[in-house]
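Memo to structure team: turn this sequence into structure tokens by end of day. - J.P.
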Amino acid sequence: MKTLFSRNTGLIILAVILLALPLLTSNAFYLDLAIKIAINAIVAIGLNLLIGYAGQISLGHAGFLGIGAYSSAVLTTHFGFPPLLAMLTGAAAVALLAFLVARPILKLKGHYLAMATLGLGIIISIVITNEAKYTGGPDGMSVPALTILGWDVTGDATWYTLVAVLLIVITWAAQNLIDAPAGRALQAIHGSEVAARVAGIDVAGAKVKIFVVSAILASLMGSLTAHYVGFLTPGQAGFFHSIELMTMVVVGGMASVFGSIVGAALLTLLPQVLSAFEGWETVVFGAILMATMIFLPAGLVPTLRLRFAKGGH
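Reply from structure team:
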């Protein structure tokens, strides 16, 4: 009952914050940041299900995001696909790729798993960069506006409403997955694959499924990003973007859905705040991350939750 209360409380707080933001400001810059935070948060939630709950490292998730983004861009621009169909086609392609590579990759552990996922991400980034005829190569390409069943998604307020609703739905779905038998199986796998297998859990199957789900979320958010920004470059699928996504999960808190949201907000806002340091942004950014890992090793949300819980006794 306490867990259910906490989950619903978190969702209510998230919904209130998302509803209040447009009322507090109509500034296009702040709405733009809020939209990007929501998109990053959804990707981070999917990645946290894989890393934080299932214990499987992925350093190439931006590759899946890039496939989704460029699928929407290329299929709408060169082949006349409706944006929604292009988005779903990209997600289906990512699901198939993730399914095909998941079993051999997820048999690996530790550094070997990290290197394998890193290699996959790098391959995707290279393909996107080299296929200049369709993707524009390093120069990037323009992306048409998003239309969904005749509805033109234009303007910051419309985009904000769309991604805010998606964030609430994905957060709710992720929390329910965690509390379901499938989610408990993932946590058992994280604890000990041998014990999970002895308990009758299909370890390989569970890892493949969550890998595919996480990749699909990244693909869909990549497509939305492409249509929202209106221009793509290969950096969207690059290694540094994968590290950024991973950092959102680690800083916010692994095995914490709301930690993913907090981490996405911090990592999206920090570059704006640190721009005042003129050339020292990377140094200050690194120092903040180091301090977080030293003093809040479990991540912000789990550490603060534990400290408040202790303070309440």
